[in-house]
């Protein structure tokens, strides 16, 4: 029987009841090695789970992935939030359709992450993985910032504007999409570079091979200029700082609902491709 850990967002009012519901459903199907209301997923690694069930929304799921670091475990997200784009199961869907988890070998999609390193002018370094994106934001007093963009040491462009989104394929449907960037298949091996309100209209989103290293140097910044990692970790940026982004050493492992394709998720949850007056299915 598979070793399963269950964790849930403690700030979700229904998390406790759903945790007990999922634990009861797993009885006889798997061995629950850990269950608790916490997003500190590093605790679960002591129990060597083969599957991690996460109760919450996409933000909870992302926080859990961060906590696992390079010891990624297949994750199944049970949505207790709003959209639930990655945490796509409901408690009802898990109970109705979840026996596939134990019928054969566990299947999941591998999704690359970003390895983000900030090197300050004084040599200090900060590092973090990113599931969706790292976003450079102009910040207060909201003057245009200037970024020198390089790839594997070669100059790509100087970007002037409100910032830059560096996104994974999983993150292509998040901030990147809102900023006008392209949608990528989530298992693609690429990064997306999407400018935020660029001063030059000729600067358009760029998709680069994930084997490359992307480097951004701050040429002009504001007092509030910041890089945000998945919207959960925020570092201040100053002139002379350098941001290096490459592929993370481990992939994010997401168990998807086989009842729906990735294209179905685009149609159902983002209304992608729906015409005027139509509802997506």
Order of helices and strands: EHEEHEHHEEEEEEEHEEEEEEEH
> Would you state the CATH class of the largest domain?
Mainly Beta
Uncertain ranges? none
CATH topology of the largest domain: Tumour Suppressor Smad4
Rg computed from alpha carbons, rounded to a whole number of angstroms: 20 Å
What is the topology, as strand order, of the major beta sheet?
7-6-17-14-9-10
What's the total helix number? 6
Q: How many distinct domains?
A: 2
Give average pLDDT, whole number: 93
CATH architecture label of the largest domain: Sandwich
Name the helicity range.
Answer: 10-25%
- What is the assigned CATH homologous superfamily of the largest domain? Probable inorganic polyphosphate/atp-NAD kinase, domain 2
Approximate shape: globular
State the separation between the terminal residues, measured CA to CA.
35 Å
Largest sheet: 6 strands, antiparallel
How much of the sequence lies in strands comes to 35-45%
Total beta strands: 18
List the helices and strands and how they pair.
Layout: E1 2-8, H1 15-26, E2 30-37, E3 51-56, H2 58-68, E4 75-79, H3 91-97, H4 100-103, E5 109-111, E6 114-119, E7 125-130, E8 133-137, E9 145-151, E10 154-161, E11 163-167, H5 175-178, E12 190-196, E13 206-209, E14 214-220, E15 226-229, E16 233-236, E17 242-247, E18 252-254, H6 262-270
Parallel strand pairs: 1-2, 1-3, 3-4
Antiparallel strand pairs: 5-18, 6-7, 6-17, 8-11, 8-15, 9-10, 9-14, 11-12, 12-13, 14-17, 15-16
């Amino acid at each position: 029987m598979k070793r399963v850990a269950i964790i849930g967002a403690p700030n979700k009012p229904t998390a406790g009841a759903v945790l007990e519901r999922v634990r009861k459903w797993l009885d006889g199907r798997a061995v629950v090695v850990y269950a608790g209301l916490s997003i500190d997923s590093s605790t679960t690694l002591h129990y060597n789970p083969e599957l991690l069930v996460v109760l919450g929304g996409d933000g909870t799921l992302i926080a859990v992935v961060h906590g696992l670091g390079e010891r990624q475990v297949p994750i199944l997200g049970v949505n207790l939030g709003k959209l639930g784009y990655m945490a796509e199961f409901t408690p009802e869907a898990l109970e109705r359709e979840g026996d596939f988890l134990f019928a054969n070998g566990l299947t999941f999609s591998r999704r690359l992450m970003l390895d983000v390193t900030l090197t300050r002018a004084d040599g200090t370094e900060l590092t973090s993985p990113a599931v969706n994106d790292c976003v450079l934001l102009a910040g207060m007093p909201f003057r245009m910032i200037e970024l020198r963009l390089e790839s594997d040491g070669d100059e790509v462009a100087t970007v002037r504007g409100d910032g830059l989104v560096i996104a994974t394929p999983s993150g292509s449907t998040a901030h990147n999409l809102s900023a006008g960037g392209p949608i990528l298949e989530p298992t693609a091996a690429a990064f997306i570079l999407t400018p935020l309100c660029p001063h030059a209209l000729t600067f358009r989103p760029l998709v680069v091979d994930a084997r490359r290293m992307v480097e951004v140097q701050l040429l002009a910044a504001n007092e509030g200029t910041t890089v945000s990692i998945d919207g959960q970790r925020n570092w201040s940026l100053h002139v002379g700082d350098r941001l290096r982004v490459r592929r993370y050493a481990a992939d994010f492992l997401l168990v998807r609902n086989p009842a729906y394709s990735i294209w179905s998720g685009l149609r159902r949850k983002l209304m992608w491709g729906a015409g005027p007056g139509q509802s997506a299915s």
